[in-house]
Amino acid sequence: MAKKSKSSFSQASSLWLWLGLALLVLLADQFTKILIIGSFTLGDSTPVTSFFNLVRAHNSGAAFSFLAQAGGWQRWFFTGLGSAAALLMVWLLKKHAGQKLFGFAIACVLGGAVGNVMDRVLYGYVVDFLDFHYAGIHFPAFNLADSAISLGAACLILDELLRVRRGH
After folding, report:
1. pTM for the structure as a whole
2. Would you say residue 105 lies in a domain?
3. Is 2 a member of any domain?
4. Alpha helices in the chain (DSSP H)
């Protein structure tokens, strides 16, 4: 039987690290949504600070409620799109598991994407609950999955900028 090289062992352990991070993001996202569903009815809002409320909002569309009023087909479209993206991200993690910033970024996006896909399958909408506002203007409500996706996207941009700077 062939001996596994140290490099392939390191790649495999890095892959499991990134998948574990994605799972932690997913679990934190789903746990917070269960808390909100159990504590709030749709439209409820509780002020936390002068600029932040906990709310219960449902988004049947995509970011910023894009296509929310599309008639229902968007639920399965975004579920399929999110599922396909998740498969691509697992492949990317496997292929590039040794790249720390890239792996972190993809793991965050993966965990968030799967969290929102789960909402669409379970409820037909995404549960949002973080409401930031200033001077009466409210930013669209979002959730931990959205935060992880945004953090991951920012890290992907940083990773690419660093790669270009290194001349690759």
Report:
1. 0.85
2. yes
3. no
4. 6-39, 73-95, 100-123, 144-166
**29-39 pLDDT, tens per residue?**
999 999 999 99
Report DSSP letters for 17-43, one per residue: HHHHHHHHHHHHHHHHHHHHHHH--TT
Q: State the Cα–Cα distance between residues 13 and 6, nearest whole angstrom.
A: 11
C-alpha distances (whole Å) from 12 to each of 17, 77, 94, 114 are: 9, 32, 8, 22
What is the CB neighbour count within 10 angstroms for residue 100?
13
If you search the block for the tokens 């569309």, which residue do you land on? Answer: 61
Task: Identify the weakest region by mean pLDDT among 1-5, 79-83, 100-104, 139-143.
Answer: 1-5
Domain carrying residue 116: 10-166
Residue 87 falls within a domain, yes or no?
Answer: yes
Q: Over the stretch 63-120, which tens digit does the pLDDT of each residue have?
A: 555 555 555 566 667 788 788 889 999 999 999 888 999 999 999 999 999 999 999 8
Q: Are 112 and 145 in contact (CB under 8 A)?
A: yes
Q: Which residues participate in catalysis according to the annotation?
A: 128, 146
